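Task 17 of the worksheet. Students: predict the tertiary structure of the chain below and write it out as structure tokens. Keep your answer in the requested format; marks are given for formatting as well as content.
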Amino acid sequence: MIPLLHDFEGATVLVFGGGPVGARKARRFAREAEVFVVSPSFVDREFGSAELIRAAPEPDAVDQWLERTEPALVVAATDDETFNEAAEDAARARGTLVNRADRAGEREPGSVVVPATVREDPVVVSVATGATAPALSKYLRREFEETLAGSGEMARLCADLRSELKSRDVAPERRREIVTNVVNSPDVWTALRTGTSNCGQVIEDVLGEELSTGGDRS
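Model answer:
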């Protein structure tokens, strides 16, 4: 299995199952997609901005829901294996991505796995163990949460700094060197994480040094 990132902005995700797993999946995808959750009942959990549809479709009616919503991804998260199988088959028949929340270990080719994820927008790091060790995924996610603190701010800083250096006609090789030095600077990381400095201040400092030395690295 090879990890990929998929942009669900403007897409639709159809979730079957209103239990804790369905709620978690709905929250995850509702960050970007329009999410519909179909279930006869819903747990007292947060479903994000998903639209909850109270219904109890039979397995042979799954395809009608796919035709109605035209999802980019189908999530089968009920506690009924027969229904989940029908949802998977209907999705595959339409060439639609499918995630079987009740399936661990070996999966059918083309399956989608939703990994443990840490976000420091725009930085995203995901951890998956092939459903063999969920506890390990959770542990590593907590580790990455600490490590990635400030990385979102650093990513925005790098993007803005590259643009500013390019506008000043700084040579590509020198731009890469400057940005690399910023990323590798413990002082910059500390400043961003503690709030003692922001992106604009760091860029001003870097540009001030670059202008004063004229790019001289000797």
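Marker's comment: The mean pLDDT is 90. The helical segments are 20-29, 62-69, 81-93, 134-147, 151-167, 172-183, 186-194, 199-213.
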